[in-house]
Amino acid sequence: xxxxxxxxxxxxxxxxxxxxxxxxxxxxxxxxxxxxxxxxxxxxxxxxxxxxxxxxxxxxxxxxxxxxxxxxxxxxxxxxxxxxxxxxxxxxxxxxxxxxxxxxxxxxxxxxxxxxxxxxxxxxxxxxxxxxxxxxxxxxxxxxxxxxxxxxxxxxxxxxxxxxxxxxxxxxxxxxxxxxxxxxxxxxxxxxxxxxxxxxxxxxxxxxxxxxxxxxxxxxxxxxxxxxxxxxxxxxxxxxxxxxxxxxxxxxxxxxxxxxxxxxxxxxxxxxxxxxxxxxxxxxxxxxxxxxxxxxxxxxxxxxxxxxxxxxxxxxxxxxxxxxxx
Length: 326
Ligand code: TYM
Prior knowledge:
Number of strands: 5
Strand order of the largest sheet: 1-2-3
Bound molecules: ligand 1
Strand content: 5-15%
CATH topology of the largest domain: Rossmann fold
CATH superfamily of the largest domain: HUPs
Order of helices and strands: EHEHHEHHHHEHEHHHHH
Structural class: mainly alpha
Number of domains: 2
Low-confidence stretches: none
Helix content: 55-70%
Mean pLDDT: 97
CATH architecture of the largest domain: 3-Layer(aba) Sandwich
Number of helices: 13
Largest sheet: 3 strands, parallel
Shape: globular
């Protein structure tokens, strides 16, 4: 059985980009793979966090995992900092990663600009991510497009270590959705939908009220041509909305374009509101109950125990191959 690993940062505002790019893959994969899903709190602290908020968001994201359909009986779900081997392997991988490689990471370059005094952790973020992945002998990593470069680095590190010390790591592959791998901002469709955009109407969060979803979609930036056709370059706004519609409905973009021939953006947007709200309804309905349940905490504890067992085996192998310890 192939092994799947992925993670989401416990920050607020989990949006439909996170869902369409990554989270819905988590559910699809859990029936025929051994899946491990993590809430990566140590990645979150690469930028300043309020401790109370962070603690709350860890459980928020865990509850969202379950509300979208991740089943802790089928998949291992846990919090990253509860498994100490992530940091341990992170250090070892640091010693097998070059400064130049990390300097070239586009996400670091972007985030560095937003931070007055970027931490070493922010620079090192991709190595901790490689550690997450390699610790579990992962074959497949379901993520959004923006993580491609980080997955490449994890692969490069694995290949490098295997070359230096003999077969130590499985070389992982990224898994990206055809539609939804890069959902764009609703207010500026040339930039990625993000959790941190100060404009709330730039994104649709998974727990947004139906009316908020409606407002965000109805006010999404389009163009003045008024014709529904797909061209990311010429018509990034309507193309993004077509992608979102396609990802939620399962209909191809070509089919949608045909269906809406002769219709205006208003009609299209109204239908999109329905499609999105219908998909989010079951998530919103299940979330509150799960978030308040003791079962949620229990399953995370159990998940951390199971994950630690696998992680410890990898650490032993790595230390042996590298000549570390007694
Ligand atoms: P995070 O929390 O920033 O994002 C979670 C997932 O959502 C995807 N994503 C998107 N997909 C499509 N369109 C968007 N606009 C969009 N924005 C975000 C991300 O690609 C991601 O899959 N670095 C990871 C967390 C991580 C991780 C790992 C993932 C840490 N260790 C190991 C996989 C394996 C991240 O960006 O989280």
